[in-house]
């Protein structure tokens, strides 16, 4: 792909006055301090996502560590012309979380454990009190703008870690329908969030 | 061919099986519009993580940084091109406060490990007890706001019947006052320890939690008081 893509809007990278892209590029040059800052920038979302998909806290912790180490190890392969650092990191994170639940499912002798409510961290009230949580609100609002089937298909796949054939089974819908709803739902979400890649 | 093309959404959501995933990846190599669409949908999917926040156990930070220090990075891919020029981005204040809070608790813990550098056997024992709580498999972190700014963190392990309490971004005082931590049992307060005078960034090990339904912190004369002399500055429920 010769065209250089740049993200015009919808970039969820700039937080706390630092830019994940710049940090990740420093990390690629072996800068451990930049890695520490990047860690602090993304960890609650990475761990939150992994917890959501994997559910078991001990496993979520293990997977999250693997993800962060992989970010360090492969930062050299991050190509800013292909997307933001945040998207790159969460692509790795989601993939690893999903890999874990799928290998878990294959191990039939394991008892599936759901994280009990009590082990949820109690940070929500702090987060809610301390932030205007514009972005969270935006994501929620945009999710509400989807059809029920689009929303279910996307959230079951992303947060639940299900394949689209599993999602189809869960929703009692045809495979091609689910495939299509995932795509047009994400496209609608993209437009709502204002994510645009331009050449 | 639109059939493969239509898999972009499921691809981005990691919802394809391995075979479809491979075939879609292959398709993308020759389909520029697919690559752009996938890039955009990836940015979109990453935003779904905005809505899932969870504070990891504080020990994770040290563990990851230790591994990073001993892990070699891979060489860059030959096809990868270095970026040129600054990319447009919007500085954002939106999560600054939250990140500062969350980071502060994590950083607080990490730096406290430094504070707690072993000076003598007593401190070393304390450190071991703190580590034991922080690394217990059932440890959960609860956070409460302080009325005078900052917050109180309680990492509690039911299996160890113990907790570690520390404050983050708490107001500091002169040497005449100190933060005191209390175990609350049905309204009755028992002292769980006093922070060093003037400072809120020490870490206290608190054991014997049975019957304790909340941890509270007050400001007292340095050295502490037998009973809280005022309303708690912050409180964290252990039962909710």
Polypeptide structure, described:
The complex is a heterodimer of chains A (199) and B (240). Chain A has 199 residues and is mainly α. Chain A contains 9 helices and 4 strands, in the order βββαααααααααβ. Chain A has a two-stranded antiparallel sheet. In chain A, strands 2-3 form a two-stranded antiparallel ribbon. Chain B has 240 residues and is of the alpha+beta class. Chain B has 7 helices and 8 strands; from the N terminus they run αααααααββββββββ. In chain B, the strands form 2 sheets. Chain B has a 4-stranded antiparallel β-sheet with strand order 1-2-3-6, with helices on one face. A 4-stranded antiparallel β-sheet of chain B has the order 5-4-7-8, with no helix packed on it. The longest helix of chain B has 20 residues, at 96-115. Chains A and B meet through β1, β2, α1, α2 and α3 of A and α2, α4, α5, α6 and β1 of B.
Mean pLDDT of chain A: 77
Q: Which residue ranges of chain B are poorly predicted, with pLDDT under 50 across at least 5 consecutive positions?
A: 80-121
Strand content of chain A: 5-15%
Distance between the termini of chain B: 55 Å
Number of strands of chain A: 4
> What is the count of DSSP helices of chain B, taking H or I runs of 4+ residues?
7
Shape estimate of chain A: globular
Rg of chain A is 18 Å
